[in-house]
Amino acid sequence: MLQFCDHFELNFTRQILTPNTHIYMQSPKTGIIILNFNGIELTCACIDSLLKIDYPNFQIYLVENGSRDHPAAFFRGKYPQIHVIESEINLGFTGGCNLGMRKALKDGVGYILLLNNDTVVAPDFLTRLIEAGEANPRSGILTPKIRYFNPDTHLWFAGGRYNLWTGISVHIGEREFDRGQYDTPGEVTFITGCSPLVKRALLEEIGLLREDLFITCEDLDWSLKARKAGWILYYVPSAVIWHKESIDTQKGLGKPFQLYLATRNLLAVHKAHARWYHNIVFYPYFSLRWLFYQAMKHALRGEFQMIVALYRAVRSFLKGEMGLPDWFRPPDVPEKG
């Protein structure tokens, strides 16, 4: 059962003068989608930072995505100015975001921002993103510069690249000290799902996130779809947010469920977008760089559940099995009714 909390809405539109470019622009209504899943403290910090932004025409949609303690009533009481959308089960990142986006689109927004709940934002970040979006009509998805929260001087994402030949995605500038070396806005080939700003027109053309991915590689799929449809992915360094992922965190895919989804979903997204000639390089490279390397690494550590997860991921891909697997469920993901 879905419950919508419709309260006070920031729905006015006015002209704003951007101090750097001195360009007048309208302020399109923008929906900001945040998912909460067992993370009240992080979510509150994220919302608190959003309530301080200078953009005049936005609405926050908080999707309470099946948390153990069912905190929807808490959020409604603490933040009466936001829409709270409650799901009794965990719909995954893709399903939860889509639930929020459908509500925002129904409300007539012109842009949608998906924002991880473990982020905080600069007061002018959304103004800068919308300014760039309005100035570049074919920019379908825009991304801010993303720094680590601690240390806040180092980069997490300054645009991204993806290679269909190798299946490798790159966060440009990751872990580098931000001295302004990536302060030139421009086109990129991959945008992370941490904070993409998406135009309504793009969503109407390519659709919402693939719910059968559940989580992982949904941002890659969106990036590839957008570019295939002729849209531009655009990096806006003047817009800044901070991500509460430790700079020391290794993306080691340390749980079987994570490794399973990362492997299966990358194979599925590649199949959906690659041409036949990409496969000549991709599958041998992927087999050596990903499957063999991961299997050897986990075998040496005695982590045989991880090897089983790799095998199951490849088997699921070959059999066309998507969605949340019945044979394994991560902690706190309840059965779907």
Show the helix and strand layout:
Layout: E1 3-5, E2 16-17, E3 24-25, E4 30-36, H1 40-50, E5 58-65, H2 72-78, E6 83-87, H3 92-106, E7 111-114, E8 119-121, H4 125-135, E9 139-148, E10 155-157, E11 160-163, E12 168-171, E13 186-188, E14 197-199, H5 200-206, H6 218-228, E15 232-243, H7 256-273, H8 276-300, H9 304-319
Helix pairs in contact: 6-7, 7-9, 8-9
Question: Could you characterize what this model shows?
Answer:
- This protein folds into 2 domains: 3-243, Spore Coat Polysaccharide Biosynthesis Protein SpsA, Chain A, CATH 3.90.550.10; 256-319.
- It is built from 9 helices and 15 strands.
- The protein has helices at residues 40-50, 72-78, 92-106, 125-135, 200-206, 218-228, 256-273, 276-300, 304-319; strands spanning 3-5, 16-17, 24-25, 30-36, 58-65, 83-87, 111-114, 119-121, 139-148, 155-157, 160-163, 168-171, 186-188, 197-199, 232-243.
- The protein is of the alpha/beta class and 337 residues long.
- The model is unreliable at 1-24 and 333-337 (pLDDT under 50).
- The radius of gyration is 20 Å and the shape is globular.
- α7 runs parallel beside α9 and α8 (276-300) packs antiparallel against α9 (304-319).
- The strands form 3 sheets. Strands 1, 4, 5, 6, 7, 8, 9, 10, 13, 14 and 15 form an 11-stranded mixed sheet that branches. The chain has a two-stranded antiparallel ribbon with strand order 2-3.
